[in-house]
Write a structure and sequence with these properties.
It is a single chain. 57% of the residues lie in helices and 17% in strands. The chain has 162 residues and is α+β, with helices and mostly antiparallel strands. It is elongated and about 95 Å long. The model has no long low-confidence stretch (mean pLDDT 84).
Length: 162
Amino acid sequence: MKTIIQQKENESKILAEQISGGKSIIVFEYLGLTAKELTTFRKKLHAANAKMYVSKNNIYTRAFTLAKLEGFSQLQGPNAILIANGDEIAPFKELHEIMKTHKFVKYKNGVLESNLVPASELDKIASIPGRDGLLSMLLSCLQASIRNLAYGIKAVGETKTQ
């Protein structure tokens, strides 16, 4: 009995370390996904530098308590946790793609930049472009004024005869 308790405590500590070091965290209900779908999903997450953990809610609760994150004490049902160590938004996007085809997969809660995010807001976060997309939008905005100036100078030059 003591070895089982010790094993659960160790698992909670390891998960708490992962939670503390993660950039974003998503708790979701995964019941109904097949093993093949979960394996494909985990591979996509691995490519995005994120991991999925499946354990008991009691271990999750202990891990969140050890990581000093509140709002996860009432977890019920079969839950999984996604922890992103790279791009914060990538796991949201991958999970959102799964949710489009499987309506039974549901968000529970999330953490982004150490702030608790309710399930209703997680869909909005998934619609934000990724880091590369946002950088390209910024670059486009920065280039727009110079590009418009160049077009204006060219148009004036074409209308004036020498």
